[in-house]
Design brief:
Largest sheet: 7 strands, parallel
CATH architecture: 3-Layer(aba) Sandwich
Strand order of the largest sheet: 7-11-6-1-4-5-12
Distance between the termini: 40 Å
Number of domains: 1
CATH superfamily: HUPs
Number of helices: 3
CATH topology: Rossmann fold
Number of strands: 14
CATH class: Alpha Beta
Order of helices and strands: EEEHEEHEHEEEEEEEE
Structural class: alpha/beta
Length: 206
């Protein structure tokens, strides 16, 4: 197990979503304590050419899984990419946003890695070599602190709970990942935004 932190970036509508900058900001802060580097992965179609941009926000290296089959998010196709990468690179922690994508992708990946999963985190601290994660419980009326006993830790971080990374860094090195398309049982036919929510409609294939 290494000391690096892997950030799962979210890209859409021609730009990286704000949660990506927040994940990188927290990863950069914690990496100063782990002694490792911050790496990122972006999954989708047409993402290879923009992957290097994440270097400006602290990513030393970015992995790009760029394939037409990954154009629309589906946990069944995204999870193998992220799981295989995590098994190969052995990060100490894997950060995703507590977003519709992250909240459905993280459990799949943690199950395959057979490791700890903490969702909707609002604070992460390293104390005495132990990673302590804070998240709200009882509908937000209290908070609980969890200690990660087995690494890597897969965690989804709450939107706007963490400071975004400051820009201005150099472009990151980019490594393209080989993608093997997955035979999906559903097909995304439409994605609609309703305020802060996103609804996805699709077709089920038996």
């Amino acid at each position: 197990m290494g000391n690096n932190i892997l950030v799962v970036a979210e890209y859409g509508d021609g730009k990286f979503k704000s949660i990506t900058h927040q994940l990188l900001g927290e990863a950069v802060r914690l990496a100063t304590q782990t002694g490792g580097a911050v790496e990122a992965v972006v999954i989708g179609s047409g993402v290879k050419d923009v992957a290097a941009q994440l270097g400006a926000f602290g990513a030393a290296k970015v992995y790009a899984a760029d394939d037409a089959s990954l154009k629309d998010y589906d946990g069944a196709s995204y999870a193998p990419v992220l799981t295989d990468l995590a098994k190969r690179t052995q990060p100490l922690m894997v950060f995703l946003g507590a977003t519709p994508m992250g909240l459905t992708l993280a459990p799949r990946v943690a199950t395959q890695l057979q490791c700890a999963l903490t969702s909707d985190c609002t604070a992460i601290a390293i104390e005495g070599g132990t990673v302590n994660v804070t998240r709200p419980v009882y509908g937000g009326r209290a908070v609980a602190v969890y200690q990660a006993k087995k690494m890597p830790l897969v965690a989804t971080l709450r939107q706007n709970a963490f400071a975004p990374a400051a820009g201005g860094g150099a472009a990151a090195a980019v490594e393209s990942l080989a993608v093997t398309p997955v035979a999906l049982k559903t097909k995304v036919v439409e994605v609609k935004a309703f305020g802060r929510s996103v609804a996805t409609s699709g077709i089920f294939f038996a």
